[in-house]
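Office hours follow-up: a student asked to see two folded examples consecutively, so here they are.
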Amino acid sequence: MVDGRQFSDNAAPGASNDLVPRRSAVVECGRPAKPRERELPISSERGTPMLQQVIGKGKYGSDLIVDLMQRYGIEYVALNPGSTFRGLHDSLVNYGANKPEIILCQHEKIAVQIAHGYAKALGKPMGAIAHDTVGLLHATNGIYYAYMDRAPIILMGATGPMDASRRRPNIDWIHTTVLTSDPIREYVKWDSQPFGTADVIDTFARAYRVATQQPQGPVYLCYDAAFQEDPLEGEWVLPDPEKTTAGTAFHADPAALDQLADWLIGSRQPVLIAGYMARYKPSFYVLVELAEALGAAVIDQRSRFNFPTDHPLNISGAAGKTLSEADVVVGLDVKDLFGAVNRVDMSARTTSSILQPNCKITEIAMRDVGISKWSHEYQQIQPVDMEVMPTRRRRCRRSSNASRRRWPPTRRLRRAPRSAPRRPPRSTPTPAHAGPKTRKRTGTPSHSRRLAWAARLPRRSRATTTS
């Protein structure tokens, strides 16, 4: 790739227009491209380069977009190259020195899916770029699944110049749409097609904030091809990410948590169903703490890695039997609570409840906050005895603390010293695991047995997976 700016500036006077592309065009000839040196201000406190704070003279619209990505910590951007964002592609390589790092993909859906997996694993947004209308249509399936999975993605795209006088015949016209985001507006959290430098800065800051606020999801920004390739006029101050990102977490109603704690402590067979709660990593350990404090069975729906797979209280494989004996069920960020507590007759298309008639159900989630007006991905509504709506960062910890305050001292679990083994070595199995002849235990372990198991565990169980 050649830096189109240098190629245009160094072209011989009077050269043919066919040989002198406009700024940031991608050509196959010329000298190898070299990233332009950026003079970043130096921090006097730590002696390290600071991110660009002001952009202006000598920079282009696509340089501004790269600065915004760097400023908000976007480390990678997946793309399948296209002409409508050739300016942005040029700036990523020659102005940004491949920061964010480009991940080259052969299809826009793959680019979105890579960003989806990154967001799911790390809990923060990654960038993806889709070429105008046709590239966006390729990406639609990946965007829809990222939306259903509540994955924060900064999806960017472009359209042919909105100024018709600057369009090339045929190709720029068929790549230009009145509102590029129309095909995906029903399954992104927010979208915008900014016009002008101030709008580009404002919408990027807002898009990052919307994508990372709970419940999270993908956002889409569409940039005019001409804006990317035009020089900036004047100087523009870039936003401070610390002042424009997601705010503090919501807090649940303390009275509701106190009521829930009373139900859990007084229950004979509490069951916790975990869906998306471990999107915030500390929630993994908090759920272990809560389950061990209550001796509660845990059903992990694996929407995220919520609970250790080898933990004695993890009985996801016996969910039906466990729920049929439960007297208190708590859904923790479960998208389909109805499906979790009902059995389905696939041939007759009918459902019936697994739970006992007097079982109390509590849902702790924010499902209806981001409910879709188009897709029925919100699932069938499940009547509950109490619905609590905090964010995942607070709800499980507060429920655990409230339960501990009310747990009678004589019934609190006594933990073994940290040096004590979690379970007998596999080489000397206990009678319950001695083999087919002696293994008579089936179904769900009793409440007293689960309490005994939990009492032997350290404060934080080892996180393992089956894969």
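And the second, which I mentioned at the end of office hours:
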Amino acid sequence: MRTIFGKIFHDGKFFRRMLIDKDDIITMDNENYAPDGSEIMDYDDSVICPPFADCHIHFFQTGLYLGALDLSDVNTKSELLESIVGLSLNDYRIGDVVWMWGFDPEDTMPNSEELDSVAQGIPIFLRRADGHSCSLSKSAQKMLPPDMRIDEGIYSGAIQEKVVDYFLRMVPLPELTIAAERVIQTALDVGAMRIHALVPYIRWAEHLMNIESQFPVEIEIFIESTDVQSVYELGLEQIGGCLLVDGSIGSHTAALNEPYYDKPDSRGMLYYDDTELLDFFHKAYQKGLAVVMHCIGDRAIEQYLRCAEMASGGEKLHRWRIEHAELITFQQLERVRELGITLSVQPAFETRWGMENGLYKKRLGERARYTNPIRTALDMGILLLGGSDAYVTPIDPPAGIWSAKNHPKPSQRINLADAIKMFTENPVLWANSPDVWKIKGNINLMLMAGDFSSPQTAVKQIIRL
């Protein structure tokens, strides 16, 4: 028997002692003694958490970008162009293209001519940090079919998705295996042992199924496809992931009911009409697949809910999920609760874009006061899952927990226990998993350095029992 002492988080509370017999946790309580003959593991007042989850990782893309040129510290187009000069760009090739990512410009994306001025004749694919805009050098554009080329070389909306799809499909499977290894190691470094892996293609999902047993984490696969029959035949219980109903706020493509503050001629875009979306929902509902989709703007959330209500006849939709829900209204939250839908949210978005004079304020004006209402959703009894949207923000559950309890809008801050549950117990509840502490049958404890009172709180050690 083992006796663990520490500040142990379980079921929304902290306990002093955990007793483990063989491979099972017998009890957790606040006693200060160890049974005779037990092995004592005393961590004083250190916080001990169950394994963390990240419920929104663009799995292979994140791994690919970890081998690409990271431009997240570059703020303007001129800085970007200056930073590329003199680099050995071939070090960042993935297949035949140099990949760059993480650029979140205060001004604009560079066009093809500007990229060519520093590209050394090498094909460059530059993706905006939010994943909803990209720029191509002229040599990269020449790799595209003629009908996908545009003079400026800056892509957003549906055409951007086609361009990204074109280049991703060129990545060979051995590169995907390397990408998977990078993601898993990054996740383990921060204690994320439950991964919701968003995968764009059935072939990639099959590859992940073939290699996942070699990794010491649990992976839940989400295929971003509307091919209901193929996903059903693979034995998955959900379909979608970051399957887009709309775009992003940063790229002016999130679908809003009211125009953008800084672009009054635009309300963003919907990627499906109601007929297409409802047909997909009906097919998935009939096969028992939970539909998981990206909806950021209130107009996109409205379309998802409208079609979900029609597909289910108003019946509960357990395990169906809306990803992001950044501009969800109170009335929409009420319908989410009535349908039993889960919200998969990214608290770090507020830390990145929700601060005073941040991106939300620039794009939305006064509506920025209402982004990511996680406290309101929690108070309404809606199940909240925490994630990073990696590659958009880093895989880092402790940082997500800190962001949730330090939301820039004080009325939307949640307490520490609820924030930890978003990244531990709630994902287990959503997945109907048997034990929050066990990964592939083994108990794992996350020994923390810090108590989540600062954004530097991190996993000190993963204790595998």
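Two things to take away from it. The chain is about 30% helix and 25% strand. The chain has three domains: 1-49+441-465, 70-168, 173-433.
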